[in-house]
Every structure is written in C-alpha cells, then in structure tokens.
Amino acid sequence: MKFMKLGSKPDSFQSDEDSIRYVATELATDVVVNVGDVKFYLHKFPLLSKSARLQKLIATTTTDEQSSDDEIRIPDIPGGPPAFEICAKFCYGMTVTLNAYNVVAVRCAAEYLEMYESIESGNLVYKIEVFLNSSVLRSWKDSIIVLQTTRSFYPWSEDVKIDVRCLESIALKAAIDPARVDWSYTYNRRKLLPPEINKNGGVPRDWWIEDLAELSIDLFKRVVSTIRRKGGVLPEFIGEALEVYAAKRIPGFMIQNDDGDDDVIGQRALLETLVSLLPREKQSVSCGFLTKLLKSSVSLECGEEERKELSRRIGEKLEEANVTDLLIRAPEGGETVYDIDIVETLIDQYVAQTQKGDELDCSEEDTNEGDGFVSDSSKANVAKLIDRYLAEISRIEPNLSPLKFISIAEKVSNFPRSSHDGVYRAIDMFLKQHPGITKSEKKSLSRLMVCRKLSPEACAHAVQNERLPLRVVVQILFFEQVRATCPTTKPSLPPSGSHGSSRTTTEEECDSVTATEETATTRDKTSSSEKTKAKGVVMSRIFSKLWTGKDRDGVGDVSSSDTSESPGSATTVGDKSTPSTRRRRSSS
C-alpha cells in the first residue's frame, strides 16, 4: 500500500478523556473548535494561515458579544474528529501519514476547510492531489480501497471527483494487456490456463475479476458500466465477473430467507442489478449462470421484467442447458412443486428464435447462417433435453397434468430426432408415476410418440409394457414384424375400423417405413429368431386381451376409433368369435 508523510515536527496532540484534545505547548490556546462531541483546544495562528473557512468562522465568533470565548462549531465536517485532527496537525507542521484508507476523509475535510493554494502555497489540498495522482490511482488495490471509502463521504467525494477518477483508473487497468500487469492482485480461482500463458508464467486475462467482487453492488455496477463504456474488455470476461460476484454475494445461489425481510429485499435488489448488467452478446454468459439467476429470481419474487429478460436470454441458449437447470422450484403455495410454466416460457422463446431463424434463412438464400440461424443439431439437442426433462419432471412432480405434459412435448414435436426413444421413456415414466389418468389421456399421450422411430431396444420394452394402450403395442409389433421380414418393403396399415376423423399421429406415421430404419433392421437380423419368439408370446397376450374385451363388452377395442390393427389380427378375431357364439346359442 502506498503512503505519504507530511510535516516534520513531532506529534504533540494529547487527550483529556475521550472528548477533549489539545496541543501540549507552553503557549495558551486561544480558540476552541467543536467537532461533533470532541473539543479541540488550539491556537488561531497556525489554523488561520491555512484554512479560509476557519478564518471566516473565527472572524464571526470574535465579533459576537454574546460569546464568552472564541469557540466555533463545525459539526458537519466530512470525516469527523479524526479527519479534522489530521488537518489541524498539518497546520501545525506535525507529522501525519496519508494512505488509501484515510486519504478520502482528509481530502474531503481539507475541501470543507478550504485549504487551497490561494491561502498558502503547498497547502493540504494540493499535497493530497499529488499523492492521489502519483501514487494511489496508479495502484490497482489502492484504487479499489479508495473507491470503497468514497461511499462514506458522499457528496463531498463526488464533488472533488475522487470516485470518478478511481473508476477510470480501475477500468483502464482492467483493459490493459496482461503482459503489462506488474502490480499485485487477487486470483484464487486457479484455472487451467492456456499453454502459451502457462509456460511463460503470464497473467490470466481475467486477473481483475476477483478483486472487483469485493465491492458493494452499487460500486460494482459503476465499475462494470465504466469498463463497458471505456471498452477493451471482452463481453465474456464481463459475464464472468458477474458470475463470480453473484457466487460471492449469493453463495451457490441458494437464497436464505432466515435473516428477515430486509435481507431478502437487499438480495432482490442485488439480483436485479446483476440482470441489468448482463452483456447483450449471446456468448457472454453461460446458460448455467442464467438459469441460476432465474431460479433465484423466482425464489426472491423479483420483478416481471427481470424474469422476462432472463427467460429470453436462456431461450437463446437452451441447447446448452441440462435437466437440472430446468428444475426450478415454484413459490410456496402454488399448485405444483416445480415451476413448469416458466419452462414452457423458455421453450417458447427458443421456438420463436427458430422461427425467426427460418425466416432469415429463407430470405437469404446465399447464406447458411445468420444472427438468428438455428441449426438442426441445436434443435435436436433441445428435443433431447425436453424429453429428458419430461421424464424427470414426471418422476418428481406429483401434480403434473397430462395436458401440461402434452403441451410441453408438442412444442418440440417437429424438431429433428434420430429416434423417439426419449419420447417413449418420458411417456412411460408419466404413466408409471400417474397411474390414475383416464384411458383417453393415455391415448393422447401415446399420440406424441412415432412408433416407427423407436429403436429395437425400445420396441422390445414397449411391446411388453402393460401401461401402454393396446393399439400402440399392436402398431409397434406391426412395424417390428415388417422390418424384420420385409426390410425393403414400405409397410402401410389398413384403414382403421372407425371414423377417419379420429386418426391419431401414430396412425399417420404408419403409412411408410423410411430407408434409415431399413439399415437398423439389417443390423438386428442376427437375433431375429429370438425376437420373433418373444413377439409371438406378446401377440398371444394381446389377442387374449382383445378376445376378453369382446366377450365382456360385446364390442372389442379392435373396432374402436382408437385401435390400429393388421389384417391378420382382424381376421383371426372374427374367425374365433363366430363358432363360440354358435356353441353358446346351441347349448341354451
């Protein structure tokens, strides 16, 4: 830390109790200066030779006939008694030491006392300015310390422009070439540095971030705003600075409300400030950081504008998220444990971005990418993410409704997928954890899945899954049978035995089998005999259920609007029904 000594005489100030300070000298004091609760017994001459304000005050006091002695009061001097004592010692020529911790207080007190060059050459204001410009503002850590102390002396520190000069100094140093950094700094986040920096023992480019995290939120905001205005620092490093600051001020982004409403209000204001400081560049902050901010904003009940902004930013980077990022706790008293509506909003933001990208792609035929372009790989990643999210939220959210499940799944239904295994797993988990849903709801859920896009492993599981509607199992078996026996033939299902208006998504997918699935069929031919045997057992179970349904209800599910059947299965059921009916009639 830089320091400066002024004066050469020994310090002869002494105390009499806590509220009296005087100069130990043979000369009697002739003026009493009241600063707050402390009385200073001093001499007029050294004070008047350097302070224009004291000259005016003492002149006014001596002409006041009601005053018994020369006593003045300066209760509003910045820095209080300690700062005034340093100024008084300077007037006496006694030794005083200035450093980053007291220089702001003394500078503001000297401004208050009007200790200018016009009163005496080499006065205190001048000497402090020399110290600030030549030492303090050239030091990284001293600049930060001085900036922190300016808060206690507002508006005086602003009037003498100490805070602005500190901000400028810090911003310039943050933007400097790391190779030129020759001052101390705090850097405890030992990252794996690039080899070209590591081998030379160089300074990391984000060396300045951790020191700024010690600032209060209002000063941090001013510093970051100054850095952005001055330029020279990449948005990624500004985003990293925000993340480090949030981690220090809200550890783990786990909001604790045990400290009272005041603490919650302060944390809410802090989070809203961080959101306002987010750089506009898409890659400046990570998706994980944004989702943590969003979770905290929900917990702290931040304003709607902050949540909208975070949702928009996350929607732009949704492909980078993971399932944990999307598991956002809902406020207490809600219908669900987790906030599912906000996840829908994130998906809507991403879908809106894809639609905008598609429009740009169509309008710019010569370019494959633009600012709003969304690649198929990005859409595929988001589709997988939502499939995994639906499976997990179905497992842990007891109040998830089928309509909400379907609503989320349909938002990404048109996104490219290599298979529908993820959709199947999500549906199966929902059916497992919510067994009380109706038959029509099960059918609606099953329509989300394209049977012909299931992998052989998923098909093997699905055909034995009693939670699935029967018609879905029949469709899966049909596609598996066709792929196993006729890999070069495009299968098509016969018309449904019911109204065409009830045709489901899975039925529409039963019109053909693509060439990509033929490749998968060839890969699985080695175990075709075992699969055929397993399918035979399952088919027996299915037809047994169909037969039981016809005997019980008189009308089987095969002929309903929600049943898909192959020609062979329909004929078999019909052939079995007729002789059985005749035997029952003859016995009666």
Automatic annotation (TrEMBL):
Residues 29-100 form the BTB domain. Residues 520-533 have a biased composition (Basic and acidic residues). Keywords: Ubl conjugation pathway. Residues 206-483 form the NPH3 domain. SUPFAM superfamilies: POZ domain (SSF54695). Residues 556-569 have a biased composition (Low complexity). Pathway: Protein modification; protein ubiquitination. Residues 488-534, 549-588 are annotated as: Disordered. The keyword Kinase does not apply. Belongs to the NPH3 family. This is BTB/POZ domain-containing protein NPY3-like. It comes from Camelina sativa. The gene is LOC104762806.
